[in-house]
Amino acid sequence: MGFEDEAVHELWTTVWGHRSAMQREMMRGAHGEAFAIRQLAHVGTMTPSQLADSMHATSGRVSTLLAAMEKKGLVTREVDPNDRRVVRVSLTDAGREHGRRDMQEMRDAVCWIFSQMGERRTREFLDLSREFMTYMSICRPGKPRPTPEEVRAAFEKRDRQVGAEEEQRGRAADARRGL
């Protein structure tokens, strides 16, 4: 291969070799409190084992995490009234606010980066990222490469999703304008 090997090396060096403060913060959130808050905010009430599965963590790790989060007032753990063997974990109002604040801080930081890049380069970056992630969604290490039909289907699915998201944003904008 030619440029592909060089591009892989550059990608790995750029993404994993130069960990920025923001990446470290995001990775911290991928394994602990921030991830649990995002997951509970997205899914709703969960059992500790469901949370452990979603985090790819041990039940012991999640138990320790939940105890710390409960102590901080971010979550509650309650016995399921229908099955006393089951514990249900939910976010408190403070937990929801903590998650909202963290997401807003991350959003503000990314918006600043995009403002530095400018609109044209940001849109190019997003288009290329979407394309790259579409390929990533169908290509598995150690498996046969996707067929042209599988590639076409993946991009058609992506285009439908993008179209639906754009339509939803348009409806939301219309609603804000009172249309």
How would you describe this structure to a colleague?
The mean pLDDT is 89. 74% of the residues lie in helices and 8% in strands. With 179 residues, the chain is mainly alpha-helical. Helix 2 packs across helix 3, helix 3 (33-43) crosses helix 6 (93-117) and helix 4 (48-55) crosses helix 5. The radius of gyration is 21 Å and the shape is globular. It contains 8 helices and 2 strands, in the order αααααββααα. It starts with a helix and ends with a helix. It has a two-stranded antiparallel sheet with strand order 1-2. It folds into 2 domains: 32-117, Arc Repressor Mutant, subunit A (Orthogonal Bundle), CATH 1.10.10.10; 118-179.
Provide the descriptors you would attach to this structure in a database record.
WH_DNA-bd_sf, Arc Repressor Mutant, subunit A, globular, two-stranded antiparallel ribbon, 179 residues, 74% helix, MarR family transcriptional regulator, mainly alpha
Q: Can you name the CATH architecture of the largest domain?
A: Orthogonal Bundle
For this structure, what is the CATH homologous superfamily of the largest domain? Winged helix-like DNA-binding domain superfamily/Winged helix DNA-binding domain
The chain-level mean pLDDT equals 89
Query: What does the largest sheet look like?
Result: 2 strands, antiparallel
Can you tell me the overall shape? globular
